[in-house]
Design a protein that fits this description.
The chain is of the alpha/beta class. It is built from 16 helices and 7 strands.
Length: about 325
């Protein structure tokens, strides 16, 4: 889940007014006539890049540390209502530093929200710094150098790779990922969403990722699927996002059943919920509606999510106990 992807049209318009940021005029893009019009436009994305166009416009209203804290804490409030007890969330510093916002402003605002989520809501949190793959690798290297102390001290939980996938194979970031591995920093990357299944194998081979984000194209390569199952690499599936971005036409087309049968560990996630019509519980419900899963199936899915998380063993055990209590009530 990307924190910037929880920027609702209502909050976007409110922050734009507060920070005196001019949004595109309704004459240039009717989507910006009102929050309702923008929300309607979000239901008609043609592709990942079409979504990213609006995603980066939205980020332009985030200026002050308070803005980042407010954005993230509103997400955590919604996550709490959905029953979330642990959240490992992405953020995109380059989308902000590239327009003159200090890295520390972004980091500190999100960290403040994470601390509030833990103390006020009882949600444990981890922040994952992402590199934008449509930008030069050299910029990712600079960001990594700037954030390395935060990553090594566990202020940040690890690194990821996101943004436009087609035409940006993950192996280009091998050097940064090698540095991260040498420093004991956790690693994940978006692969096999819109891009080919080969991007998944490349992320595993060249980046030595510990998780695969999205990864639905994995089902196209039986041998690779078995490799992922054997290595217990978690695939973080985002069902409603995949539908909105035209990766599949229906949730029922996703490889949920194939992954379960093949022993591929995967979790259900919301990606950019303000843009894709559903938060995490909506995604769970969409999967259940499409596949009519059993309590045992869900125990496997949620168990894989816990096992593949980056929280410590004590926290994992606490979450497992909560899961077992829920499953027991539905068997």
């Amino acid at each position: 889940m990307h924190l910037e992807g929880s920027l609702s049209p209502q909050l976007l318009f409110m922050l734009a007014a507060r920070n005196k940021i001019a949004l595109p005029s309704a004459s240039d893009d009717p989507s910006f006539a009102s929050p309702a019009a923008l929300l309607d436009r979000y239901s008609r994305f043609a592709s990942l890049d079409d979504f990213l166009h609006y995603y980066f416009i939205g980020m332009g209203v985030l200026i002050h540390e308070q803005d980042f804290e407010e954005l993230a804490f509103q997400y955590f409030l919604r996550a709490k209502a959905d029953g979330v007890v642990h959240a490992e969330v992405f953020f995109d510093p380059q989308a902000h530093t590239g327009r003159g916002i200090a890295y520390s402003t972004v980091r500190d605002g999100f960290i403040s929200a994470c601390k509030r989520a833990e103390t006020e809501l009882g949600i444990s949190t981890m922040l994952i710094l992402c590199f934008l793959r449509h930008l030069p690798v050299s910029e990712a290297e600079s960001l990594f150098a700037n954030a390395k102390s935060d990553l090594e001290s566990s202020i940040l939980a690890g690194i990821g790779l996101d943004s436009s996938e087609k035409g940006f194979p993950p192996g280009a970031w091998q050097g940064v990922y090698q540095q991260a591995k040498a420093s004991g920093i956790r690693r994940t990357a978006h692969a096999g969403e819109e891009g080919p299944v080969e991007y998944i194998s490349e992320a595993i081979r060249d980046l030595d990722v510990e998780r695969i984000d999205h990864g639905i194209r994995l089902a196209e390569d039986e041998n690779l699927m078995h490799q992922v199952a054997e290595r217990k690499l978690l695939v973080t599936m985002c069902p409603l996002s995949n539908v909105r971005l035209q990766c599949v036409k229906e949730v029922s087309e996703l490889p949920v059943r194939r992954f379960l049968d093949a022993g591929v560990p995967f979790s259900i996630n919301s990606d950019d919920p303000a843009y894709f019509g559903g938060y995490v519980l909506d995604n769970y419900c969409a999967v259940q509606d499409a596949f009519n899963l059993s309590a045992t199936d869900w125990e496997s899915i949620v168990g894989a999510a816990v096992n593949g998380s980056w929280c410590n063993d004590a926290r994992k055990q606490s979450i497992r106990e909560q899961v077992h209590e829920v499953i027991a009530r539905h068997q």
